[in-house]
Amino acid sequence: MRDLMAITARPEVISLAGGLPDTATFPPRTFAAQMTKIAQESSAQALQYGPTEGFEETKDCILEVMGAEGMLPDPDDVLVTTGGQQAIDLVAKSLIDPGDVVVCEAPTYPGAVPVFCSYEAEVIQVATDEDGMRVDELEALLERLRGEGRRPKFIYSIPTFQNPGGMTLSLERRRRLVELARHHEVLIAEDNPYGLLRYGGEPLPPLYHLDGGDYVIYLGTFSKILSPGIRLGWAVAPPPVMEKMVLGKQAADLCTSTLTQYFVREYFAERRWLEYVGSLIDIYRARRNAMVEALERFFPPDASWTVPEGGLFVWATLPPYIDTTDLLAKALREDVAFVPGAAAFIDGSSGSHSMRLNFSASDEDVLREGVRRIGRVIDEQMTLFQTITGEHPVPRPPAHADEEAEQAPNVLPLRRRAEG
Ligand SMILES: Cc1ncc(COP(=O)(O)O)c(C=O)c1O
Q1: 273-298 vs 398-407: helix axis angle to the nearest 10?
Q2: Would you state the pLDDT for residue 15?
């Protein structure tokens, strides 16, 4: 992933690989006005260390964000962290001893994989379908582990607009997941960076809301609703866990950036943050639609993909003879990038025909062009497969091919010899 991100930083590469929100949508004037106000009114404090737990004013902003999804935690249970990523790290650091079992979804957030591995957890992934984690499989797993005298330290889940799968855990499964956690006395780490970025359908209650915070540790972030550059996230955990997480945070970085906590405080004081989230929703909905239309046009008929009701990602699955890690190398030669599915599986052995595609960071034309380029590389692979095996993959309907030739933006007609 690190190598991939380095390559995609090249300006000529269309990156559908990252998970970047479009920070160009944030008004520079608002940013400038707030930073100026901080410099004029609170310079010394904003440049100083702060409490490890975070400022009370930052927690007030966090409570507003969680309130928008129906949650009302006790501020004493909230820890302000350096991004949502640190919140995942602190949960893992506080709870995992080498060899402990951690359960997560298959596929899961690629950035969580190295965290669990670095604390030497035994990570077990539970299959997902269009309704999120297969909670029946989780139940069987918990029973099996109980038979072996083992209990997972926690279940890591992204129930809403999952990264990378794009799917959302159904209400029935949410209820069952919380019940199972209580029954087996296992903590759940609910990671919810995308819950407020909904483009359709009805909101579902977070696991934290259903459980009331006894067994669910909640992880949030300002990255996708405001800015990832400010590196501000949070964790909400029951007191015995929170105590360890605060110690872990002190060891890691003493405190979260004071300056960016001041920025969030000023920004929320304007009381327009939900308006900004609303504008992001409009932009990302149009981009999701453009990506899905482009997939229909440029991907082979035997490919499939999720159409997420929110979040930032589409998960596409190709015919089984196409390995997306190999495909990525070829796509990069065409200056387009995606995340190969294997990155979302602990041992990299599954997901080899799938890819994660991000639609938030590019406008509609760029998305279309990116998907067209990937579609072209897939076509080449399919032709190669056909040449080697003699088998004919499902043919693309001819109308698509014509349209594609007509509309391909960077195909220049060759001059004829007679024209000199
Ligand atoms: C599911 C999930 N958790 C955590 C993070 C990390 O977020 P942050 O930028 O706040 O560290 C991301 C970032 O993409 C994510 O997708």
Answers
A1: 120
A2: 94
